[in-house]
Write a structure and sequence with these properties.
46% of the residues lie in helices and 24% in strands. The chain is an alpha/beta fold and 481 residues long. The longest helix has 44 residues.
């Protein structure tokens, strides 16, 4: 609805204007002097001002000049309503900034026609201005911008997404189906997000995916999706960000944290292997004896220690064995048992007693063993740091069902009775580079969160200062990487 500001010091004239224009779809605002007119104009930003020329204190010419000198109002159309019909008066009005004139007494048909024409042109001018600003912003945006209709056909694509997609200029993106740029599982994720935003105009969906170019090359992207009206039809706006550099940095952070965790494990394994090696060396020395019985005893002890080393190395190899394709079925119980075997010496030296309650016949979930090991090691090392004077560490496994989705999760709980965390610390522990330690990168738990989410899972912590911490990790049993 257009807003008209009617300025006239004569009450009868204002009432006449109301009578003439009341049948039109206008919001009418009235002012009886120039000062009030300027105040109201700044408040409502009218689509048209009908301005009387002959007013006391401040005439219509002066009001017009001031409006034109106000940036927010400079483009508002002004029709001057005057009883003066001479050439000089009209020239003065034009010089003051008037767009048109109506002579008193006002012809109702002419007034309605002028008002309709000017408000329609003003709306068009504003729409064109907004469109030009929108087009300029989309052209300059460092992110790709798409608008797709409810059938997922691309209606608009900015230059950035065209460059990102390496699209042939002779085959523009407009008119193509947007799901062709997503891989299978990400296409499913896109369709689910699209359904949500079309059903709820206030919702914004965000997810990460892989964008597939026409030449089949790929790159990681982050997508924001929201509802938009396009040509009076419901549509979806997509903001597409190339996150290749971020993904590379995250991969480097993951590798660095894996190296830090593995350093502790390596030292533990070295100690676990060195002890039986020393025993073997001693037994072989003592076996150099004339007494057959003693020789047999020492060789048997040496063989037992060799078996012990073999067991440790098998556990280590199983823990870090590479698998073609990356994702394999993982049994959380087996993973936990192997990590505990290899870290038992670390807990013993720290005076920490480990208790486990692992659910028998636990279902497997799909994942990458190296990354699962890294998650467990990072949380276990944090637990050790949280119990500087020793304590108890409890590990449990279970399953749970999410009623809203019907999804079944494998749940790993890691609880310590250490120093715990204050609320302000607990709220930030998964932030990159946040740490309370004198030494440390502050990336360990952030990397854990990232890896868990990449496997479709969730990680959370419950903690109270002085009362320990409990980490909860849940993985869906049918998630595919």
């Amino acid at each position: 609805m257009s807003t008209l500001l009617i300025v006239d010091d004569n009450l009868t004239a204002r009432q006449m204007m109301r009578t003439i224009l009341k049948s039109e779809p206008y919001e009418l605002v009235f002012a009886n002097d120039g000062k009030t007119a300027l105040e109201y104009a700044a408040q409502v930003i009218p689509d048209l001002i009908l301005l009387d020329v002959m007013m006391p204190d401040m005439d219509g010419y002066e009001v017009c000049r001031r409006i034109r000198n106000t940036p927010l109002l400079a483009e508002v159309p002004i029709i001057m309503v005057t009883a003066l019909d001479d050439r000089e008066s009209r020239i003065d009005g034009i010089l003051a900034g008037a767009d048109d004139f109506i002579t008193k007494p006002v012809d109702p048909v002419e007034l309605r026609a002028r008002a309709q024409t000017i408000t329609r042109l003003n709306r068009y001018r504003r729409l064109m201005g907004e469109r030009l600003k929108f087009e300029r912003m989309t052209e300059l945006s460092p992110n790709g911008i798409l608008v797709v209709n409810a059938h997922h056909t691309i209606l608009m694509a900015n230059p950035t997404i065209t460059r990102m997609s390496h699209t042939d200029p002779t085959a523009p993106l407009v008119g193509q189906l947007v799901e062709t740029f997503f891989t299978g599982e990400h296409s499913t994720r896109y369709h689910a997000a699209a359904a949500h935003v079309l059903a709820n105009a206030q919702m914004v969906e965000q997810f990460e995916a892989v964008w597939v170019r026409p030449d089949t090359t790929r790159f990681p992207v982050e997508v924001d999706m929201g509802f938009i009206q396009w040509d009076d039809q419901p549509a979806i706006q997509l903001i597409v960000r190339d996150i290749t550099e971020r993904a590379q940095l995250e991969a480097m952070a993951i590798d660095n944290e894996r190296f830090a965790a593995n350093s502790v494990l390596t030292a533990t394994v070295a100690h676990e292997v060195n002890t039986p090696l020393h025993t073997i060396k001693t037994c072989l020395y003592l076996a150099d004896s004339d007494e057959q019985a003693q020789r047999t005893t020492y060789l048997t002890l040496a063989q037992d220690e060799i078996d012990r080393i073999s067991h440790i190395l098998r556990q280590l190899l199983d823990l870090y064995r590479t698998h073609d394709g990356g994702d394999v079925p993982i049994n959380a119980n087996t993973l936990i048992e192997r990590v505990l075997v290899l870290t038992s010496n670390v807990f013993a030296q720290a005076g920490i007693q480990v208790e486990s309650a692992l659910l028998p016949q636990l279902p497997t979930f799909m994942g990458q063993p190296n990354q699962m090991t890294q998650i467990l090691l990072n949380i276990l090392l944090n637990a050790i740091a949280a119990m500087p004077n020793g304590g108890t560490l409890q590990l449990t496994t279970s399953t749970t069902n999410e009623a809203s989705t019907g999804q079944t999760y494998v749940v790993i709980m890691i609880a310590d009775n250490g120093i715990g965390m204050a609320d302000e610390v607990r709220e930030r522990i998964f932030e990159p580079f946040f740490t309370t330690k004198a030494e440390g990168s502050g990336l360990g738990l952030a990397v854990c969160k990232r890896l868990v989410e990449q496997h479709g899972g969730t990680i959370s912590v419950v903690s109270e200062l002085g009362a320990g911490s409990t980490f909860r990790i849940a993985f869906p049993i049918n998630h595919n990487l």
